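[Discussion] Sanity-checking designs against the backbone

I'm trying to build intuition for which residues belong where. Below is a structure token string of 297 positions. I'd appreciate it if someone posts a full sequence so I can compare it with mine line by line.
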């Protein structure tokens, strides 16, 4: 493997671990801020840390900000707004009380992002990579779907749509990073992150001002725990974007399925919940898919 091969994999694993921690913190905030408020925290309180990352990157690397061309803006807007739309679709699935079922369909994201990347960016997907994506995705579906679970057309449609939006977001952000055409991929990734968070923070803040200002007041009061959640969110995003700068979005989002393994490990070793044969089979498929992906890259 080349240097970029193992670096993108390392960045992705760090991002998945940080995202797992952020998700746990967001769940704690949901009780006081609601789902929209807890979601906004990741953008609003993540932005200052992303800006700090950019300042530190500029100082350490002695680099200047790359010029931003017109082509950058459509890509970053797609990345930022598609991520908000994906989150909204997930919230709709939760309200439908079928979120557990839709998780399996949301995790079809690697398959969908491979299609978006190929069509929009020309990212190549080799046969071994395609097989790895399908195997790892199948593992998540095996772990998520259980016999006799409530389902139906609505949760399936919501899950597939959310997965598509997450995939489109990843593709948009990768397109934005690549459009900067900066040989310093760290600078390009960090600048894209800052601009993306500005768009997301501004959009959701405007939405809450118009629809529910009390949520903004609650967020301000919960600033202490929100800061930590924001930091972990910004840290996760920083490493996602570094990975997007070096590898196709499909590869990154497939390897990101290790997040499921992290959650399963917490369940098994800290919560002392046994692993069922179905979950073990799903874990095996994810591991096989991830190993094949890294080997074939």
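Best answer:
Here's mine. Compare freely.
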């Amino acid at each position: 493997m080349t240097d970029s091969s193992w670096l993108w994999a390392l960045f992705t694993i760090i991002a998945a671990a940080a995202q797992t921690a952020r998700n746990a913190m967001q769940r704690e905030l949901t009780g006081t801020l609601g789902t929209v408020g807890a979601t906004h925290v990741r953008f609003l309180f993540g932005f200052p840390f992303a800006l700090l990352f950019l300042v530190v990157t500029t100082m350490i690397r002695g680099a200047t900000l790359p010029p931003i061309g017109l082509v950058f803006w459509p890509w970053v807007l797609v990345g930022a707004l598609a991520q908000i739309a994906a989150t909204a679709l997930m919230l709709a699935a939760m309200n439908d009380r079928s979120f557990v079922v839709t998780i399996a369909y949301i995790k079809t994201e690697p398959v969908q992002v491979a299609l978006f990347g190929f069509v929009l960016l020309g990212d190549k997907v080799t046969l071994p990579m395609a097989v790895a994506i399908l195997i790892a995705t199948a593992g998540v579906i095996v772990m998520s779907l259980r016999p006799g679970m409530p389902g139906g057309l609505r949760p399936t449609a919501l899950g597939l749509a959310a997965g598509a939006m997450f995939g489109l977001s990843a593709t948009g952000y990768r397109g934005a990073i690549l459009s900067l055409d900066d040989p310093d991929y760290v600078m390009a990734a960090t600048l894209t992150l800052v601009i993306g968070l500005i768009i997301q923070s501004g959009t959701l803040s405007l939405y809450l001002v118009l629809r529910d200002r009390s949520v903004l007041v609650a967020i301000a009061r919960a600033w202490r725990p929100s800061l930590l959640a924001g930091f972990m969110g910004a840290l996760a995003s920083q490493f996602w974007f570094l990975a997007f700068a070096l590898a196709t979005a499909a590869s990154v989002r497939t390897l990101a399925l290790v997040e499921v393994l992290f959650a399963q490990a917490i369940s098994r070793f800290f919560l002392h919940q046994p692993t069922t044969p179905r979950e073990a089979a799903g874990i095996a498929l994810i591991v096989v898919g991830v190993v094949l992906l890294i080997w074939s890259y």
